[in-house]
Amino acid sequence: MDFDAYARTAVDLVNAPLTELTDLTELFGEQEWMAAEATDRDFNALKRAQRRLRDVFEHGAAGRDAEAVAELNALLEAYPIRPRISGHDAHDWHMHVTGRGSAVSSEFLAGAAWGLAVWLCEHGSSRFGICADERCGNVYLDTSSNCCRRFCSERCATRSHVAAHRARKRAAESEPAPVA
């Protein structure tokens, strides 16, 4: 069972720009059946959970482990897992966290909450991050070897470093020249 993949679904949900039902197509990606079966009720449930999952990342990034755990436990209670074995042929057996027949949002959120809970137990909530680029705000899971990641992507890191460099350069140029 790939718990990291389930944890990444939580990241994808928090970072998703959800404004209308059709936005779920991109969120669900290769799981096209989820987008096809999603209803307005699922969309609204995912929007509410999006905020709650962001809170988990904010608590973790701020070192408030107990609050991150409390919110994850509430999400696990709201979206319980029902493990099942699934596969497409006799050699492709794998685990899923919920059974088909659940609402799309329940299935998606059970996996997201479970994945983050396992991630927190294995790596600690200090590995939950919020992008340091003030224009971004996306969340991420810090997979660096020394827990030093500060940005959600290379793009944000580069953009932030270039902006800081330009600001230092402007500040140096605006300083009065030393008197000889």
From TrEMBL:
Domain Zinc finger CGNR intervals: 127-169
Coiled coil residues, start to end: none
Organism expressing this protein natively: Planosporangium thailandense
SUPFAM superfamilies xrefs: Jann2411-like
Name of the protein in its database record: CGNR zinc finger domain-containing protein
Matches recorded under Pfam families: ABATE (PF07336), zf-CGNR (PF11706)
